[in-house]
Amino acid sequence: MMKLAVLAAAAGSAAAFAPASNGRAATSLTAEKSKAIPFLPNPENCEGYVGNLGFDPLSISEYFPVDYLREAELKHGRMCQLAWLGYVAVDLGLRVPGYPEAMSGATSATVHDAAVEFGAMGNILVWIAIAEMTSWIGVSQMLQGSGREPGDFGFAKQYLEGKSEAQIEKIKLQEINHCRAAMLAFSGVVTQSVLFEKGFPYF
């Protein structure tokens, strides 16, 4: 009888330190899975956004407003589309009127140092700062519930007039896909040009 009591006490003590079941394991096993990463749960906060494939391996959408994240994605994507075009155009020999002689022989990969020496980088910084401060007004209003859509600065709105919701969604999907492709393309172009030290097509 004494042995039975000791075993019961030991079992009770062990149970006291066992992790309590809160149902999370069952929830994570039965939750909808991401299309992009099937072994991770689907990021629910990304639902309803054009181009959403459930790619959020770091769960960033749980810590930041998704409107803000989409704004950043569109901004970086648009800049990379312009950057890729500019990077390649310079390496193909395109120069703007008044291009300084000190930078005439520079490539896209080497022009930074020449631009710093010439003093152009300060001007670029000023214009970028003005653009960022101006754009933040719209972003701030969006985060406060103004109804503004991410990336909407009112440009070329007439292009969407008369189009159905399905057509508008298709255009938005095309833009976000081009943005994502451009971010990869620009990083690839820069990497190739630096590694191989060759002009376009960089191999």
TrEMBL record:
Transmembrane segments: none
Listed Gene3D superfamilies: Chlorophyll a/b binding protein domain (1.10.3460.10)
Signal peptide (from-to): 1-16
Binding residues annotated for chlorophyll b, in chain numbering: S61, R78, L143
KW Signal (keyword) present: yes
Keyword match Repressor: no
InterPro entries reported for this sequence: Chloro_AB-bd_pln, Chloroa_b-bind
Record's subcellular location: Plastid, Chloroplast
A GO term from the CC aspect: light-harvesting complex
Keyword list, A-Z: Chlorophyll, Chloroplast, Chromophore, Light-harvesting polypeptide, Photosynthesis, Plastid, Signal
Primary location group: plastid
Chain's role: The light-harvesting complex (LHC) functions as a light receptor, it captures and delivers excitation energy to photosystems with which it is closely associated. Energy is transferred from the carotenoid and chlorophyll C (or B) to chlorophyll A and the photosynthetic reaction centers where it is used to synthesize ATP and reducing power.
Annotated protein name in UniProt: Chlorophyll a-b binding domain-containing protein
Native organism: Skeletonema marinoi
